[in-house]
């Protein structure tokens, strides 16, 4: 049993230890009427005495530590003998003695309960299963949350007359008011400062909670909270809950590869993808509380490579690389798709500057392109958007984008392929040629049959609007030849190059047919790449 647990049972309000490391060491309480322990056991025994009698026990060999009690304020300048903890407690010494002796009898039971928790830990990598089995050992309902107050596991039956708890369980988050109350009452701060479980009381319902901070490699991962139902808590419960929390931290790290970044922000983003938020403000508030900085605009970057994102170690490796380039981002693997949510720099422009801001952020110093090439990856970048709740739709658009890119460039922007994405999306269920301008489709056939170059001429006209010299040069023909072809294609195919609407129609069709060559040939239908069965 930890020395800290023993001090809690003795209602110690302040203490002076010769070495603070003693507080987290395991000891066996030596009752007043106990025989002297065997020499091999003396390193693990602790003796209780009054401060006035401490001099009788300093240097004795039948124990390894001494707790010296007093009811007077402590002199923090006094010397503390080795292996000694001087404590102040308001309870009478005879009551303290009874509690201390009772702990000696509880120690085997505590060791047995810890062994059961450890056995559960060894059998599972699942935090929810471990939480259920921890409930069987601890005997009181419990909640496991991450650092963003997201509830990730529960066990046990919570009281029906606690609407505050019922609401939180239904929403999947500890409410902001409850969290703030814990901060105001220093519950969380005390648990952090002492690195140990602490007891608090909900005054409205007069019920106790044990709060234990979950740490992994000195990183705060969340909380392990237990509600007292059948009885009030004691030091025994504190140590048991603290031990369960210590095992939960390892399970959390195993379970979630996002632990390398901010575990809670990625978990909240996953909730966004699963449509768990109705209002944008709620999602923004949760992400802000997890350390993510909201922005007026965002972009989503989907990453693909030769290897599937099914291995946590591989995901963490790629996530670490990209997080170095975009430290302000959150990354997540969702349904096998790896993506980042990237906040964009705010702008005071009254126009729309976010396309330029996005391109500069993505292409800045070539770091992303180099990382992608080094790891055989590709990035598909969404348009800027302004609502975090749009992430799910933006990921879908990036998935469409990945299916219409046929070059070897590592970075592709949705902005450059809007018509291609729309055409591809329609082609999943239908023949895209029914939506295309038939004059352009006939022009392709005409060029093949008559050996003309009207498609190339029209493309040059669209590519270099108002610049006949550049258009003619791109075709390797004289300006007069260029103008002659333009006149002829207008006559043959009834296209009005002076009509803006007509130009939009032919430009869209020309863009789509140039990108998907099968449309312009004998089979005017896109042959879609294999899609997910749930893709709409």
From TrEMBL:
Residues 455-510 form the PucR C-terminal helix-turn-helix domain. Gene3D superfamilies: PucR C-terminal helix-turn-helix domain (1.10.10.2840). This is PucR family transcriptional regulator. It comes from Bifidobacterium margollesii.
